[in-house]
Amino acid sequence: MTLDGLTEKIGDYIKETDSFRDEVTVTVDRDAIIPVCRILKEDADCSFDFLSDCCGLDRLPETPRFMVVYQLYSLRYGHRVRIKVPLEEDDAEIESLTPLWKAANWLERECFDMFGIRFTGHPDLRRIITPPGLEGYPLKKDFPLEGSETT
Amino acid sequence: MIVDILLEILKIIVIFAVILTCVAYLTLMERKCLGYFQIRLGPNRVGPWGLFQPIADGIKLFFKEDMTVLHANTFYFILAPMISLVAVLACFAVVPFAGNAFIVDMPVAVLYLMAVSSMGVYGVLLAGWSSNNKYSAMGGYRATAQMISYEIPLALALVGVLILSGSMSIVDIVNGQQGMWYIVKQPLGFIIYLICTFAETNRCPFDFYECENELVAGYQTEYSSMKFALFYMAEYAHIFLASCLITVFYLGGWHGPVLPALAWFFIKVFFCAFCFIWIRATYPRIRYDQLMNLSWKVMLPLAFLNLMVTAVLKVMF
Amino acid sequence: MTEETITLNLGPQHPSTHGVLRVLLELDGEVIVDAKPDIGFLHRGLEKLSEHRTYQQILILTDRIDYLAAMSNNFAYVLAVEKLLELEVPKRAQYIRVALVELQRIASHLFWLGTHAHDLGAMTPLFYALREREDIMDIFEAISGGRLTPSFMRFGGLAADADGTFVKNTKKFTDAFAEKVDDYENLLTENPMWLSRTRTVGMMSKEFCINTGISGPMARAAGIEWDLRKSNPYSSYEDFDFEIPTGLQGDVFDCYMMRIREMRESAKIVSQAVDGLPESDGSPIKAKVNKFPAGEVYHSIESPRGELGFYIVSDGGKSPARLRVRPPSFVNLQGVGELLKGRLLSDAVAIIGMIDIVLAEVDR
Known about the structure:
The structure holds three protein chains of three kinds.
Chain A: H1 3-10, E1 14-18, E2 25-28, H2 33-42, E3 50-58, E4 66-73, E5 80-87, E6 93-95, H3 104-115, E7 118-120
Chain B: H1 2-37, H2 53-63, H3 74-91, H4 109-118, H5 120-130, H6 134-165, H7 170-175, H8 182-185, H9 187-200, H10 212-215, H11 225-250, H12 261-282, H13 288-316
Helix pairs in contact in B: 1-11, 1-12, 2-11, 3-4, 3-5, 3-11, 5-6, 6-9, 6-13, 9-13, 11-12
Chain C: E1 6-10, E2 22-28, E3 31-38, H1 46-50, H2 55-63, H3 70-85, H4 91-119, H5 124-144, E4 153-154, E5 157-158, H6 164-188, H7 192-198, H8 206-212, H9 217-221, H10 228-231, H11 252-275, E6 295-303, E7 306-314, E8 322-326, H12 328-334, H13 336-340, H14 345-355, H15 359-363
Antiparallel strand pairs in C: 1-2, 2-3, 4-5, 6-7, 7-8
Helix pairs in contact in C: 2-3, 3-4, 4-5, 4-11, 4-14, 5-6, 6-11
């Protein structure tokens, strides 16, 4: 899917675009994530029916600190798009994509586990990979590599 | 009189010793055969061709720590393996190894066999229940239901043999096969008996109690040392018993040209035991509900059919 | 009288959960009412560690993501970094890479076949499958020095060029392989007991697979004709002639057939790669890399378990600012909770086996 094609469909929501190494990346606001994903999933020309991945990004010391990155794939056309949503450090909340894709369930749990980003509307938001009782979020840049006292 | 009694006791001891040795070496045979089926060697360290392996296993099990589970019902916990083993060994009393090599030749031997081997179910049930462990309990219930379900078609298949021989004494049944083995006259009965025997002895493809993959070790999970050894011996003694019974009921017992009677008997028994091992190496195990379906919806009707056809043919010819 | 369900814990130490997976089952008799997988026992902080290692050092870590398909992990990582660097890989290196990765696919599927059959009671195919896998491990050892963790790929190519013995041994393996797969099929495919244990167990619809993010042989078993090697080819896969098998119902039997047929197709690809191996044109088999431009890339390959992707965010330094592994087993395992509901306990083992998880990949 080219950048022009995308701009046609979701142009209102796009804040930034990028096409490094021929990969299409769009940055949208967090309020726009559900409408954007719905359009991309249901539109016949886009047909991004597969949520490949959802992960977090910590850009300390840049602001906004966090990014949630979604990789979408179209089984029909074989094209990909990357959607990035910036989140402020003290307001790291975003709507969950679980109503659209069940795949988002564990992927968002892992994002929460690693960064502390809360997904509103998630059916079961709790830690998934780290041991129970861990304090802090491991993939944040200020979490030490050796781990904290509670590990 | 005293001499007769002493001779009888000596006969019992000798036969008992032979049976236990065969059972011990059956474990080695299983491990070696499974090894060769699986393109590996099996035990070969302890003695030439691993011949002292059963002795080593026995010594190992003897010296292991004997644990009794907390909150287990101790009396039944200890009783269960004993019941299993005794139920099987008692059946050997009526199994004839040759024309006159048996402990006793009862006129109701088949009835005795069915009754005493059914007692083995108590061993399994008590083991599962008294271990105070969910896994063991589930394993025990499954094994019990399996054994009870398959006893019925087993007995019905045997009735076919009884109709042909006209007697419940095993020596008479074997002697009745001098002209033609009953496997030829009762092909369907043989297949039913064979499948039911696999289920009775808890062997693959019906080996739920052994399926480590689902319930760790089933009803034997909590047993260790000698109690486990008793279960282990009971299992192999049951296989040996089953092979002996298939031999005497369907394969003509000790009859055969040239070689002495005892040799033929053991050749046939070990061939049957080999088939048990062969089938274990080849087939996956079936699911519990499919097992129950097989018993009640397939084996039982077929056994009835076999019985009717045998009875009709016997009356007509 | 109230009916109670019992809670049974399958794992984390259990012969059939293939590693440290814990599944909390609520049972009503033999029927599973609810199933909750619990993971995280093998979490080693791989993504955090990658932020403190150079790109070259991370290559060693990638072997350990999915230890049964180490070459695939190396491959996915190296392709992602080469995309970041816009590095050209010589054709010879591409063909050798394809041969190695397809051999790895066969090895991974063989291991899966052996353990899955063993779970369901057929203990013999395990030994036959491992015997073939030993041959593949020997080929890997001869070319890279490592059996399970070869770490053989490098940016721009491979650690070393392949020589005549690689070609000879690989050909010997692929020539004999089709017969071996026939052996496994003889034991299992038409066996009524195998069919009764695997047919209609754990059926998945196409919509379920797409929505749950399931990829790889499981998705193809449900009928989705999707293989990244065909839809988004990389590393000269477009030069090779192979088919993508698809199933009908997405049950355990279909997943089994997918992997068996994929093994056959992979053997064909390896044969073609080795037969058509271009001669070395004198250019070095790997590139010297020092500078990594800032930017972000995502590249995924078709690993034996599904879509294995690497998302690398580079800020221009020697280490990535973020390395994300998109683990196929993790996403595939999500679906297991739903697939297990309403099935019997014995089916739990079959269904968990059909996913072909490697916990190291699930937990990283």
